[in-house]
Each structure stands twice: as C-alpha cells, then as structure tokens.
Amino acid sequence: MPKLTSAVDTGSPEFAANEAVQLQHLADLDAQLQLALDGGGVRYRERHAARGKLEARARIELLLDEGSPFLEFSSLAAYGSEFTVGAGIVTGLGVVSGVECVIAANDPTVRGGAINPFGLKKHLRALEIARENRLPVINLVESGGADLPTQADLFLPAGQLFRDLTRLSGLGIPTVSLVFGNSTAGGAYVPGMSDYAVLVDKGAKVFLGGPPLVKMATGEESDDESLGGARMHATTSGLGDYFATDEHDAIRIGREIIASLRWQKKGPGRVADVAAPSRSSAELLGIVSGDLRVPFDPREVIARLVDGSEFDEYKAHYGTSLVTGWAVLNGYKIGILANARGVLFNDEAKKGAEFILLANQTDTPLLFLHNTTGFMVGKAYEQAGMVKDGAKMVNAVANSTVPHLSVIMGSSYGAGNYAMCGRAFGPRFSFSWPGAQVAVMGPEQLAGVLSIVARQSATSRGLEFDEDADAVQRNVVEEQILREQHAFVMSGKLYDDGIIDPRDTRVVLSMCLSAIHSAPVEGRRGFGVFRF
Known about the structure:
This protein is α/β, with parallel strands linked by helices. The protein contains 20 helices and 16 strands. Strands 1, 2, 3, 4, 5, 6, 7 and 8 form an eight-stranded mixed sheet that branches. Helix 17 runs antiparallel to helix 18. The mean pLDDT is 94.
C-alpha cells in the first residue's frame, strides 16, 4: 500500500497551541477518572478493606492474565448526575486464561454496589458488546440489588439484564458469575441465570429476600448463611456450582472455568504481520485543532494509527471532504471513513455509500473517524439532491453488517453523526476524544436558528421584535448547547463506550478489532432501496 507522508510541523506555534488545549482536556478527564477510581470514598473503601474484601478493580486485576491490559468501558457513566462518576460498576474488555472476555464488577464501596439507572445502562451495554462480538461474560458480583429510591426508573428496564444473560447462554456465549458478597433480590438472578456460579464461603449471600424481609413477609426467623450462604447453596439448593474458600480462590476457579471452555475465535483474523506506524502517536495531540471550527487533515491521524502508516486511498480526488480507503491496523484489514473539512456534500455522501458497499462485499470492518458539521444545506445543494444523496450514505451505514468502529475526534453534528455511524447506528465500539462535541448543530447555529424563527414569528403577528431580549436568549442557548455537547456529558449518558486519550487510540482499536474477530465477520450482500 502507499505510505502516508506527514506535513505536520511539530515545532510550529499552531502545533503547540493545539497540544496545550488537548493536555488541558486530558487533565480534566483525569480528574473525573479519579472520582471513578475513588468509588464510594475513603470511608467506605476502608470499611470494605477492613472486612477482608478486595475492591472491584483489584478483583479484575487478579482475574486478568498477568500483564494484559484492561479496556474499561463508560468510565464517566453518571457524570453530571446525582450518582457517583462510574455509576457504581466497572465494565470492560480483558483477557482471562487467553480468552477475551467482557467483565462486569459491582463496586460495593458505592452504596453497597446497589444498581442505579446509569449502572444498569452500563451493565446492559457490556452485555450487548459481549453478544455482538461473541465474547464470554464474567460478572464479579457484590450488590445489594436495586437502588430503591430510584426503583421507578429501574424496575421495568432491569428485566433486560435477566433477558440478556439468558439470551447469551442461548447463543452459546458462556456466562460466569463469581459471587463475593451480597447478590440480593433481583441481583440473585445474576448467578441464577449464569452458566457457571462460583460462591465465596462466608462472603456470598444470594437470596431473593434477606432475613429482615423474610421476617416481615412470613414471620420466619433466619440468618444470612442458612438463607443464602455459599455452603448452603453448594450443598442444599444447588445454586452454587463451585464453592470457593475465599476471594482469591473464587478468582482462581473463574480462570479455570474460562480455560476449560477451549474457546475458539470464528473471525478471519489477521491478514498481515503487525507493523508500527512510522509516525508517533504522541503527535496526535498537536494535530487535532484546539478550536474545532478549524479543520485538520485526517490523513495525519490515519498515519499515526495504521500499520506502517500505509493507506490505500479510495477516490482520492472525488468528494474530497470525506477521506476513504483501506489499511491494516494491528494486522487486521479495515476500511476507513474520515471527515476532512467538516461538511459532507453530495459527492461525499455518494462516495461514502459506495465505499461501505465495497467493504461489505469484502467482509472488511469499518472505522469511522468523526469531525463533521453535517450535510451541506442551501438551495443549490437541495436542488442537486442533498437529501437523497445523504440518504444513500445513511442507508448504507444502517444496513451494513460488517463490524463498525467509531471514534469522535472533533465535532459530530446533525445527520453527519448518523452517516458516520453514531451511537444510534450501533457501532460495535464507539469512543470519543476528550475535546469532542456532539449535538444537532453548533451552538451559534442553533441559537441563530431559534432567533430567526422568533423574529419571523413576531413579524407575522405584527409585533415589535425585542433585540435586547433576543441577544440575552441567544447567549443562554449557546451556553446550554456548549454544556450539553461536551464529551464528558455525552459519555456520562453512555452515548459512547468511553473517552480515550488520542495517543491510546491505536491500542484501543487494536483490542477492539481482536475482540471483533471472536465472532464471524460477514458483510451484507443485498441492501434496501437507494434513491438515484
């Protein structure tokens, strides 16, 4: 393949200014990630340790193969809400006994591991990733069940957790529960609906209702151990498949279960030996514009992501604000669609649709690199068929069955987000850079549209338009959109799978591509009706 060259001047003032902005974004991100790492705070973490228990991330670290990375999902879940950042659960992708697995671990230092609405969404997304990519699931359980004050937002959707666990089993995707502590009420069904249940002696407490509820409901006196302890379930109820003497023993057993699966991948795997890019990933911080209104060349990003910085560009001289082409990343063949100058015109939409069809013909996964303000508007473009051309690309994305990976580098506005496989279009994995922005349109444009509509409304009713009030309102709207489009807010609502350091993008995508190939990689051969 042709090798990309770089025109980046790493000693320029523009590079330094961009890098400074990105480093500040990363500092802000680190502050939020620390909140997630702190869990319920010092008091509850110390109390947890005093009980001889490991914290959620320590359990994960012991479960993973030594020295292997853990790709955590949705670290900022619940950001900006009343709940702790991270939402009281840790989810992610890691290698256990040589097998890539999805792992979900309740954080018992956060309200006893109780499930809140954000934590539920986070857990469900982890199970969705497992299903789509055919990855075994390991639940590290210690939860008091539903966060009762928010039960109105939990009870009905929480049933999906039970449904998804059983469907995974039905698809032949193994599910394992290691129960370290409470697994109460609805949470008792997590081990109950898993293929394998490992319960820790004098730690696990698995019951639909604890002693106080049993007393209230039936008048019966009971204790934790006789009602739901590990030994009882191992010897009497039969719920416990394995009896673990302590937490380390449970983790050992969990690793042995995964090893015994003899799990085999079904994807085609690597097509080439892995080769590092010829350009440093550290330079990405100075490439992405500090002011997202200023475009940057995505080829400079691609050169720092793909093997050997080699990129076979498709239709390089046509529809030039959308860069498309073929590459290899960590040995896996991929197709790439990347926004170059923000706006998608008619030619870009047609080019993108054609490229997606080609990827499906050759069973090639697609990587979407977002930096778009959306499809072009205006009389000339509407008359040229912007709607039907944009619909072609959206149709192609929606009906494509090869795995999609999505990284929001900068802006991702309007239908451009849809055409570039935003969250609504089901990418296998979706990540954002910390300065990314997602909204229906830019703050200034949105505020301006509302101002024009208000002005037209006043004119139609014969009223005088209040310019001062309009200026105030525009400022209020712009500030609102600036807050709402922020990457942290979007990630907090689980509209992506996490915010990543741009310098880690290649590593993250490499892990995701490897996981994707656990399942067959097959494109669609027939699409719906395209408007010509």
